[in-house]
Amino acid sequence: MQRQANFADSLERQAAAHAEARARHDRVDRQIQELIQSMSIFRDALISITHHVERNEREMADLIERGKQTDARLNGLILVVERHLSGHQ
Q1: 3-state SS of the chain: helix, strand, coil percent to 5?
Q2: Secondary structure (3-state) at 1
Q3: Over the range 44-69, which residues count as b (16 or more CB within 10 Å of their CB) and which as e?
Q4: Cα gap 57→76, rounded to integer Å
Q5: Mean pLDDT, 10 residues at a time, over the chain (89 residues)?
Q6: Hey, how many other C-beta atoms are within 10 angstroms of the C-beta on 83?
Q7: Could you give the C-alpha distances from 6 to 10, 18, 29, 88, in angstroms and in order?
Q8: pLDDT score of 75
Q9: pLDDT at 89
Q10: Three-state SS for 35?
């Protein structure tokens, strides 16, 4: 009779431990799903930022090239003005 009671207690403890383990497992599963969702959002944001940086780099390269062209034109204008002024002195 005592053995049966001990066995029943043992089964109850095991069932309770199993239920706690299952609850922890379910909680970890939810946390993993939340982490996956967060990482997906992070990935999308990182891709978006990368595209913006790439576009800005292209625009910056274009501005640099335009600046070089403007410098060349200004240098040409300066030469013309300097020649004009030196010829009239």
Answers
A1: 95, 0, 5
A2: coil
A3: eeeeeeeeeeeeeeeeeeeeeeeeee
A4: 29
A5: 80 91 97 97 98 98 98 96 86
A6: 10
A7: 6, 18, 34, 119
A8: 97
A9: 59
A10: helix
What six digits make up the tokens of 29? 């599963």
Encoded amino acid at 65, one letter? E
In angstroms, the CA 84 to CA 34 distance is 74
Q: What letters, b where the CB count within 10 A reaches 16 and e where it falls short, cover 4-37?
A: eeeeeeeeeeeeeeeeeeeeeeeeeeeeeeeeee
